[in-house]
Amino acid sequence: QVQLVESGGGLVQAGGSLRLSCAASGTIFSINVMGWYRQAPGKQRELVAVVTSLGDTNYADSVRGRSTISRDTAKNTVYLQMNSLKPEDTAVYYCNCNANGPAGWRDYWGQGTQVTVSS
């Protein structure tokens, strides 16, 4: 089984910064894509940013230029540095990875970490 544990969420004022971390653990043979998604109250879960095993990245238009996703392959950890935060960034942020574990290739999700941006 593969587990994802997120950390780094919290309350921050508009214009501030946060760094989210997510570590994958368990029986992992390899990981392809790692990334972050978010879900605001009453809205669908949406992609924030992803990074492939080769280091290619993709960002949602709403965070591009304000956020940086990075990955420590040796530690099976992905980070999301978010700057110039806005109230509309308030959401539960979920870590996701596409990993090869005991059940083969599948997607795994973390429990989520709350990010609240006050105006």
Structure commentary:
The protein is mostly beta strands. The protein has strands spanning 2-7, 10-13, 18-26, 30-39, 46-51, 57-59, 67-72, 77-82, 91-101, 104-109, 113-118. Strands 2, 4, 5, 6, 9, 10 and 11 form a seven-stranded mixed sheet that branches. It is globular. The mean pLDDT is 97.
Can you give me a brief rundown of this structure?
The protein has strands at residues 2-7, 10-13, 18-26, 30-39, 46-51, 57-59, 67-72, 77-82, 91-101, 104-109, 113-118. The protein is mainly β and 119 residues long.
Largest sheet: 7 strands, mixed
Number of helices: 0
The percentage of residues in β strands lies in: over 45%
Q: Give me the secondary-structure category.
A: mainly beta
Order of helices and strands: EEEEEEEEEEE
Instruction: Compute the separation of the termini in Å.
Output: 40 Å
Unreliably modeled segments: none
Helix content: under 10%
Gross morphology: globular
What brief labels describe this structure?
seven-stranded mixed beta sheet, single chain, 11 strands, four-stranded antiparallel beta sheet, 119 residues, mainly beta
Q: Which SSEs are present, and which pair or pack?
A:
Layout: E1 2-7, E2 10-13, E3 18-26, E4 30-39, E5 46-51, E6 57-59, E7 67-72, E8 77-82, E9 91-101, E10 104-109, E11 113-118
Parallel strand pairs: 2-11
Antiparallel strand pairs: 1-3, 3-8, 4-5, 4-9, 5-6, 7-8, 9-10, 9-11
